[in-house]
Amino acid sequence: MIHSASKKYNCIIVEDEPIAAEILENFVIRNEELNLVGKCADAVHASSLLNIHDVDLMFLDLNLPVIKGFDFLKKLKNPPFVIVTTAYHQYAVEGYELDVVDYLMKPIPYDRFVTAISKFRHIVESEEALLEIADRDYIFINSGKKQVKITLQDIFYIESLREYINIHTKAETLTFKMPISKIEKSLPSKIFFRIHKSYIVSKLKIEVKSANMIQINGKKLPIGRTYKPFVEL
Known about the structure:
- By secondary structure, the chain is α/β, with parallel strands linked by helices.
- The protein folds into two domains: 9-128, Response regulator (Rossmann fold, 3-Layer(aba) Sandwich); 131-230, CATH 2.40.50.1020.
- Helix content is 26%, strand content 36%.
- It has six helices and 16 strands.
- It has helices at residues 18-30, 43-52, 69-75, 92-97, 110-128, 180-185; strands at residues 9-14, 34-40, 57-61, 81-86, 102-105, 131-135, 138-143, 146-151, 155-161, 164-169, 173-177, 192-196, 199-202, 206-209, 213-216, 219-222.
- The strands form four sheets. A five-stranded parallel beta sheet has the order 2-1-3-4-5, sandwiched between helices. A five-stranded antiparallel beta sheet has the order 11-10-9-13-12, with no helix packed on it.
- The longest helix is centred in the middle third of the chain and has 19 residues, at 110-128.
């Protein structure tokens, strides 16, 4: 499921200097892989853009008014990939701690911008290859440099913990760094369904079910209000 060349990645520019924002916008327009869905000058507007659009990549200036770039980034629950732009060297260390894709120093040369986009694309394509459905009775999930094979029949339920998921199986609990929505797309809907923003369950493993709860392997899992219409009772 690696992106073809025709795929465009949605991006936003968060930059309070008009000239810097214009330069970045021109760079984005020159790059066929990128689709600019919005630009803004502060964190408040950036939040609303992220709510409106499905954003793959955010160009984030660190020296924003009111809320600084990194403070804004720390508050985001599911941030897109981030390329940081700044005129100040001292932010670099914190940027790497926050797992940003790349760090562009102003004024940004176009060739350096292109390198950052290549890094971004490489990371995205690696992530998309994480969940490789080999056959419908098992999935492979990449964990670091190794692939973990999980038999679908062994899965009781999957639990989301912020940016991690716990896959509870017959033998053990496996933890991976990925959003629950990502694994949900890769599981056969005949067997698995979402009952809560934090839980996906296997229909084969349900022991007890009621209007508000499903019990699997002795554990009671809540049914979220928004998921109730989709949970077959």
